[in-house]
Each structure stands twice: as C-alpha cells, then as structure tokens.
Amino acid sequence: MDMRTFGKSFQRYRDRAENENGVRFERGRVHSIFHDENSGDLIIRYADYTGAHMEEIFDMAVLSVGQRPALGTTALAELVEMPLNQWGFGQTEPFSLTRTNKEGIVLGGSFSGLKDISESVIQASAAALSASRIIHAAGGSLSPTDTPVEPFPDVSQEPPRAMIAVCSCGDILSKLLDTQQLARRLKVDPAVDQVAFIEQVCTVTGWEALVERVEKYKPNRILIGACLADVYTQKIGTMGRRVGLNPALIEVVDLKLTAQSAKLKYEPSSEDEMSKVNSELLAVLRMGLARLKWVDPDPVPVQKIRQQALVVGGGIAGMSSALAIADHGFRVELIEQEEMLGGNLNWLQRTLEGNPTKTLLDETLLKVEKHPLIRVHANSRVRDSHGRIGHFYTTIENKDNGAFTLEHGVTILATGGAEADTTSYNYGASEAIVTQKELERKINDNALDPDRLGSIVMIQCVDSRQEPRNYCSRICCPTALKQALYFKKNNPEISVYILYRDMMTHGFNESYYTQARKSGVIFIQYSVNEKPQVTPMDGFVRVTAVEPVIGQKIWIDADIVVLATGIVPKLSGDLAESLGAKLDQDGFFAEAESKWRPVESLKEGIFACGLAHSPRNITESIATAEAAAQRALRILSYEWMPAARVVAEIRHSLCSLCERCIEACPYGARMVDVDLEKILVNAAMCQGCGACAAVCPNSASTLAGFSDPQMLDVIDSALEGTG
Amino acid sequence: MYIGNHQSKIINSIGEPMNQAQIIEIDPEPHISPKPVIDALDEIRNMVSTCIQCGTCTGSCPNAFAMDLTPRQLWQNVIMGEKDAVFHSKTFFLCSVCYYCTLRCPRGLPLTEAMSALKQIAAKENLAPYKKSIRFYKSFMKSVRRHGRVREMEFMALYFLSMKNPFMPIMFVPLGMKLMGKGKVSIEIPSKGDSALEPIFRKVEALEKR
Fold first, then answer.
1. Fewest CB atoms within 10 A around its CB: which of A14, A144, A426, A629?
2. A511 or B152, higher pLDDT
3. Which residue of A549, A555, A561 to mutate against B (max B Cβ within 10 Å)?
C-alpha cells in the first residue's frame, strides 16, 4: 500500500502531520465499516501489516473517492470530435498537457487528467498560451494595443468639483427616491458641483448622455451611482481617456444592491420608512464621494517596458518558454551554460509512455535555431542582474567572448536539475551498482544484453524523502517502471525486484505499475528505519532486505543494482539572489504562492519553469515552461507600465518600533534595522495590501491612496447613513 | 562491467540457501502430472500478480485465525515464487470457499479460485504435507462417484483404509458416536452403487488430462 506525496513540499507536510500533529498513518485498507446503533459510533475493520484483524471505533469516516471525468465529458468530446483516453479524460498530444489532436481545442484542469490546484493553475496558463499561440499564428492578437502614453492632466491643485450621476434605472429608483431631497442633501458638501439623474446609464444611450454631460461641465471627480460596479471598469477607462480625466478619479457605487436590501428591511409605503431608504442610499453615495475627495490625484508615472525576455537555461523547459515568447513576436535571449542546448534530453531516450524524446529534442532544437527572434548564448552564464519588472540589466559571461550586458523586461529561470550524487548503498564499490541515469545510458548504448542478465534490483528513494533531501523527485518511480518493463519485455526470464518505500505513480502512471506487476516485476516495500543492505560480492551484488508482508529477511543476488537518487536543482543561490528571487529549503524556486501563483516569483517579472521549479517529467516541465511564458507575456505585451507600484511607507518620526507591522505583513516585506532603529520596507516584496497601516497604532505606517483621513471619512459617511 | 548469468535466489530466512526442490516431498505413489509444479504455480501467480498487498483478503477471512500464513502472506509468497513456503502452508486447505475475499478484493482478483487451484496442485502432486486432506477429499469423491451422494459409513471406511492406520478408527469413535446420536450417519448396506454419475466423472478426467 502506497502513501503518495509526490507534489512539491508534500513529503514534509506529511511528516509534520505525523510527527508534530499526531496524525496516525496506517498502511492498510478498510474492508468494512459498521454503524453501532446503540452508541452511534462507527466500527472500522481492517487487517494490520502482521495480518491481525483490527477493529476500531471512530466518530466519523471521511471517504476519499478520487476523481473521475466530469459528467457530460463524453457528450462534449463527441460534439467537438475530440478523442478521450481509456479512462474517459481528454486525450492530449504527446509531451503536451493541453493540446489535442484537433487544432484550436486546448484542454485545462482535470478535463485531461487528475490534478491538484497548482498543477491545474499551471495547466490553465499553459492552455491560455496554446490558445494565444493559435490566435497569434493566424494574425490575431490577444494583447491590448491602446495603452495610454499621454499622462492625464494634473488636477491636484484644483479644488474638488465632483459630478454625481445617479442612474434612475428605468423608474425603479425614481419611485423609491426623493430625487430632489437627495440632490439637496448631497450638495451640502462643497465638493459636489452638481447632481444629475440619468436614465439607464448601463445602456449606450445612457452612457453617452453621461459622457456628454461630463464633456460639457468638465468636473474633476465623477461619482456614478448605478448597479454592478465591476462592469464599469473598462468603460471608465475609455471615458477617462476621452474626457482627459484620470480613471482613478472616477468611481462607481452600487445603489441597486443597497436599494434592494433597504426595501426588504423597510415598508416603502410609509413616509418615515422611505426616508430611511433614502438615507441609506445617501450614505453609499457619500462614502464614494469621501473616497474620491481624498484620492491622490498625482498622475501615475509610466515607464517603457523593455519588450524582450531573458531565458536562463537551454533545456527543454527553457527552449519551450523561449519559443512560446518568440512566437508572440518578442525577442528572446536564451542563455545556456553548456556548449549544446537540450539539457537532460541529451541522455534520455524515451518516456514511460514510449514516446521518443529524441524527436522532441530535434524538433525543438530546429525551431529554436531557425527562429529569427531567439538568440542563443551557449557556453554562457549569468554573472549578475539588477533592475525591476519591465527593465532588468543582466551581465552575461561567455566562455570565449567575455562579459556583456543584456536589457530585458522579464526573466525566466529554466536552469534545470540533475540526478543527485550518492555514496549510499555502497555506490562506487562495484560497477554493478549504478544510478538510474547510468542505467538509461547503458540501455541506450546497448551496453547491456538483457539475455545475459539474471536478476536486477532497483532501490527507490535513495537519500530522498528524508532529511536533508526530504522531498519526492516524482520521476524515479515511473523511471524504474520504464526500465523494469524494458527488461521484462526483452527477456521475461529476468527477475526484476523493485525495493520501494511508496510507489509514486500518480494519475495514469498507475496503469504502468499494474503492468509491471503483471509482467512479474516483484515489489518489496522497505521502511526508512530498516533500509536494504547492498554488498558487492564476487561477480554479483547481494541485497538483503525485510519483506514486510511475509515479515522475513530475504536476500537477492543481483547482476545489477540500480539506485534511484532523485533530482537536485541546478538553480544557484547567487543567481537567484542577484535577481531577487527566492529558493526553498531544497534549492528549488520559491513560488510567490504555491497554489495560485505557481510559476511566479514574489519579486515581479521573474518566473521559473522545469526542474529549477520542482521535480517533474518532460511533459509537466513543458507545461510549466508554457505557463511561465504566458505569465511573462502578460507583461511583455504592454509597451508601458506604471513606473512604481503602491508600496507601504513609514513616517519614522511617528514610529515607536512596536513591530506590530512586521507581524502583520503577510509577505515578509518588513524588518527592523536594529542599528538604524528603523523599520524598513522591502519595496520589491511589498504588495500594498495595507495590513501594516491598519495595525499601526501611531499611523506611522501608511499606504498611498489609503490615507487615514480618507478611510475615516469613508467610515463616517457610512455611519451617518445608519443614523 | 561484470554481467553475470546466475539466477537470483530468495530464501525465506537468512541462513544456508536451500535447494527448494528437495523440500517438497513427492509422494512415491505413481501419478500423472500434466504440468510440473513450478509451471502450475506460475498460473496462480498470474491470477494474483496485480495484488497490492492491502490485506482486505486477510481482514475478511473468517478462517485466518487458524492459518499459518495469512491469505495476504500466501499471495505474496506466490508472487515471489516461494513454492517452498506455499506448499508447506496449510492456508489454502483451510479455505472454506466463502468468497468473502474475492468479493471484497479491490483489484477483483479470483482469490477463491486461486485457493482451489492450489488445492488441486497439492492433490495432483500428492504433496506430503496434505496427504490427510487429499485422502479425505478423494474418499469423499469416490463415494459420490458410486452413489451420486456421499454415504457416510462408506466414506469413513474408505478414508480409514486409505490412511493405512489401524488405530485411526478408534480415534474417531467418540466423534462417530456423537454424529450417530444426532442421526448424521446412516447405516446402509454396502453396495457398488449404480454409477449413474460415472460418465460425468469420466468426462472431467478426460478434460483434465488434456
């Protein structure tokens, strides 16, 4: 029985659950659950590893039922004439998680197989990339073309002149509202220049009437009272550009929602109650007005984006992301440390599914070499990098030509990974003890004759899934199955033993696990406390282990012992540090947020893919490469961007160094400098959430655009309405 | 590098490797075996090869308490080709064919069938550890073959005869008295029977030889 922790950081999570939180893990399968009618308890029965019949009482049983294709998948697939795989999930092309054999149909999420959140998000980005590639190839574009170049006129020196436009929404609002009284009460505020009631602002006619009115009276603040505030975002942008008013000075508040809830609360027929409805609506409008009055009207400076990408690493992930970006018309600088591109694909031959990797490599290499927008820098490495999103300066050191500097808007880290070294299991003491990579090479070089082999032992999780490398490398179990099936296919007489802790054959890989069992591969589980022993003998290697089911010590005399040592990342700490990216404790790329922003760094403009990101197979690596490219294209496709983001600031004269803001900051962007006696903000990490400003007892921590007077004014307006 | 061509050996306990073939005592009585034991075990291995060692069979088995190897251990031994351990175990002769394991096996393996197949191998090979059981079964079938049903007295007589132990009937006297008292054993005149089932038995024999 396997307990699978194949995702990034899952193994430590499981260990924490067991060792720190006292979760009990039992290897076994519950064969029946009974309901005790007297006590209401659940009686759970299973056999433990010794075979003893166990019966335990629990309050609740949670059944993990797995995933299956969504209802209607078959009908949908038939409708678009798209193939499904044997389990009824969408069938994708080899080496792609998103492309189907029907051009124009790409898949996302669990439609094409079983996924967790981060993998779904990665795949969704990859699917978006595949879709946008098709549109781009056909001459279309998904990127916005009209970015504002001209800064908006500066109104900061003018007194606020607000226009309040209230949608009468058919005549629903006018029936409910005493419009005259509302206008009068709003105009009490000197900032209000005029109040207008416009019929159906959401329609083209209504909106046009509003824009005309704005053009006529030229207010420097606009408050719109309508419904569904979110749908106006784009309209506001367009209007702002047309009338020359920064969209930040235009605000929409939702009156319909307020009116509806007020109508439910009060009896509209009575005069007294009606005025209460009016007061609530007035409060909503006043809150909007308060926000507008205090909006920092400074025009946001813009900065030109250096619309080209730097991709560090020329393996399959690096090449895939370079191609994805270049195919969208942006220049890519591809840095490769070695003389040749290709990385691990240079020694891999085929996948577990039997797809030849050489074809993939040759095709990708050809595309990269032929692409006019990709410039390959072989024998090169990144020496130093600085700058920020939109404009980085990176110094590259070439073996022959020395150092030079590249300018780019985004950086993609695809530095890859390698098979880990080991000294365990007497590795090095005999030529018959090899790693998985060495075995793959021997098979590819035809250095092994399956007919002359009698017995092979494979040991999984060598130095892995235990500190300090306490993570699952995800590919070793499928690789062991691939090699075992190769031997069994070429010579069924070979005895193949796989000594494992948990076979991490997630998703469709499970079928190869079953296939291996069917072909006679013998799986023997070992525990980390009682590892197998490997002793080189004269002409063979003796492996001893404990067979947990039979409960006895066994030995196997093997011709070859294969060690699955797993993957270590090749992302150097210096490189990450100079870029401002972070590494996790195992040296893999640290995501901004592991589930929802899985390929982005907390420092904006830096992305990672492939083995530098996490252990994964070729197809999954390509998916991360496409996801990283898609996220990078979101930046590259703009010509301009705001020069500075809103970040928290500190008024040191008011700061009492209580450090509450450090605790409150969810991004770890704050620290205390003991020598300077100051709180410092890391501008690259601050996301402008305002948590620090909210906890600061002295108002020393501030966030531009969310000043204390503004927020207090908004709160006052809200409370006024409730009387 | 060295590439040898010697076979691997798995031994049940650390110690001197033993020649597995010598462990199994083959009954000297002549018998016709369609296939050698090792091939027959291979067939059973194929039946259970996709076992995931979850222990559902063991947990469900009502007779597991009396077995020397639990069903899961038996299947793991079969998978590993440990015919020595398999054919010294009483497990499969203790199977009462209740089908619980087959019903509950998450892999849908024909476990009850596999148990029966092991019994058949043991019977065909007349393996020493199971002589008693095999003779019991054979005597039972002999009686059924003659009469179309079992005749308890005849069955007992045949069994005692086959065991070639003159003291054996004496050992069974208390049980016999008990059963007779309850009317479970009827006394009938010994006869050769009408052999109405003879053609069926012949047909089965012919099929088995093929």
1. A144
2. A511
3. A549
Alpha helices by DSSP H, A419-475 = 436-444
**pLDDT for B32:** 38
Question: What mean pLDDT, rounded, does chain B reach?
Answer: 80
The complex's ipTM? 0.78
Q: Give the amino acid at A617.
A: N
Helix A179-187 crosses helix A271-294 at what angle (to 10 degrees)? 40
Q: What pLDDT digit, counting tens, does each position of A561-583 carry?
A: 999 999 999 998 888 988 889 99
> What span, in angstroms and rounded, lies between the C-alpha atoms of A88 and A105?
17
Q: Measured between alpha carbons, how far is A623 from B152 in angstroms, rounded to an integer?
A: 73
Reading across the β-sheet that carries A162-167, which strands appear in turn? Answer: A192-198, A162-167, A221-226, A250-254
Nearest CA in chain A to B100: A31
- CB within 8 Å: A454 and B73: no
Closest Cβ opposite residue B55 in set A46, A495, A552: A46
Cβ-contact A612, A310 below 8 angstroms: no
Q: What is the pLDDT of residues A378-390, one digit of tens each?
A: 999 999 888 788 8
How far, rounded to the nearest angstrom, does the alpha carbon of residue B174 sit from its chain's CA centroid? Answer: 27
Cross-chain Cβ contact A47/B55 below 8 Å? yes
B13/A552 CB distance under 8 A: yes
Task: Check residue A604 and report its DSSP letter.
Answer: T
Sign for the CA dihedral angle at A136, A141, A143, A148 comes to: positive
Contact A51 B55 (CB under 8 A): yes
pLDDT of residue A643: 64
- ω into A468 cis (within 30 of 0): yes
